[in-house]
Write a structure and sequence with these properties.
It contains three helices and seven strands, in the order βββαααββββ. The chain is of the alpha+beta class. The longest helix is centred in the middle third of the chain and has 21 residues, at 80-100.
Length: 148
C-alpha cells in the first residue's frame, strides 16, 4: 500500500494529530483523550450489540441515493475524503442507479463490525446491500454498495 503518515506534535512532544496521505488525499485524525476514546468505544460496542441504527442514517442514505441518481450530490454534507471519492465515481454511480430504477423498500439489517449501518434496498430492477457511515458531525463519511 502506498501511504504515508505524518504526526503533528504539541509543545510537550505528544502527538496532537496524524495525517494519512494516500491516493492524493490527506485525511486528518485529531488526538482524543483516553476518556473520549473509552466512551466512543463503549458507544460503538453497544450499537453493535444492540444492532441499533444511527439516528439519521436511513434518511442520509435515501438522500444521497437521490442525489447520485440526479448527478447532483451535496458535497458539503459529506466528509472531504468521501466527497472527493464521490466526485471521481459519480458517472459510474449515476449509471448504476439508473439501471436499478426507483427505490421500492429500505430495510435496516444491522450494524457492521466497523460501525457502518447496513441496509438492504430493493429497487425496481435490482436488490443491493448498502453500508453507510456517518461522521460525528452528521456528514456522510462513507457509503458502500454491493448487488445481492
Amino acid at each position: 500500500m502506498n501511504a504515508q503518515l505524518t504526526f503533528d506534535t504539541g509543545v510537550q512532544g505528544k502527538s496532537t494529530q496524524v495525517t494519512l496521505h494516500q491516493n492524493g488525499r490527506d485525511m486528518v485524525a485529531k488526538r482524543i483523550d483516553e476518556a473520549q476514546a473509552t466512551a466512543l468505544g463503549a458507544a460503538l460496542a453497544k450499537r453493535i450489540k444492540d444492532q441499533t441504527a444511527l439516528p439519521g442514517s436511513e434518511a442520509a442514505l435515501r438522500r444521497v441515493i437521490d442525489e447520485l441518481r440526479s448527478g447532483e450530490p451535496k458535497y458539503e454534507l459529506m466528509s472531504p475524503a468521501f466527497a472527493d471519492l464521490t466526485r471521481q465515481q459519480l458517472p459510474q454511480l449515476k449509471g448504476l442507479l439508473a439501471q436499478f430504477g426507483a427505490v421500492e423498500t429500505v430495510t435496516f439489517k444491522g450494524v457492521g463490525a466497523g460501525g457502518a449501518d447496513i441496509y438492504e434496498l430493493k429497487f425496481e430492477h435490482a436488490s443491493s446491500e448498502w453500508r453507510i457511515t456517518l461522521a460525528a458531525d452528521g456528514k456522510i463519511a462513507g457509503v458502500g454498495v454491493r448487488p445481492l
